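Retro notes, item 3 of 5
We never archived the inputs for the 2-phosphoglycolic acid complex last cycle. Fixing that now. Sequence and ligand:
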Amino acid sequence: MGGKLVVGNWKMNGGLVSNQNLLSALVDRLPEDVETAVCVPYPFLAQVSSLLSNTSIGLGAQNVSEYVEGAYTGEVSAAMLCEFGCRYVIVGHSERRTLFGESDSAVARKASAALASGLKPIVCIGETLAERDAGRVREVLERQLAALGEDALLAAGNGRLVIAYEPVWAIGTGRSALPEQVQDALACIRSWLASRVADARKAKVLYGGSVKQDSAAALFALPDSDGGLIGGASLSAAEFVSICEAAGAVSRSSDLGVKRSNG
Ligand code: PGA
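Structure as it came back at the time:
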């Protein structure tokens, strides 16, 4: 918990000109009290890194190799991402798990490789609709968390690894999970972490899946929410700014609440 984190996942979108337009409309418009970042396709890392230098917006990638270096054609290492100024990397997004066959154990190895280079992995977990309908949400989340291994869970406990709850059926469908469904899943993740690491309150747990400016405030205000991973809506400057502003407003009002309750 703590301040909110809002991360844009551009997926396989963008181009040199549209990136410049999008970022120039974001810089200086995102609230300073929200940690923000954009995760962009590999070829744009250099461009976006230079456009974001001297701004508070962090840079991330959308995937990373589990290997350190060598004969792995087409792979990109964590050290390379660091050289281009990345602070974050999305690991185990459901599109990578389903379309590119990434297993729980491959996701765990990628998260470890990212951590070893000092990157902050944003590890995505979440159930399919069939798994939800079968009442297996908790089981799936716990399996995906357990697969990460002890070091990654310790890193989650001290904020060096971020967990993103992304129900597969809510991604890119325009059908966000309902706030109560999200809260149940976030609480399940946090309580599972609490049984394994010293201070699970410090872990950052995000929600992602069709977050839009209209739904953002209610989702960010959930007791176990630390922010969001935003796909489609991060490609519109106006929409992404509104979503980040909603995160800032929620943090400020909860800070006020804490101050009031402390007298
Ligand atoms: P969406 O994507 O906001 O477009 O649903 C979220 C994600 O895939 O991270």
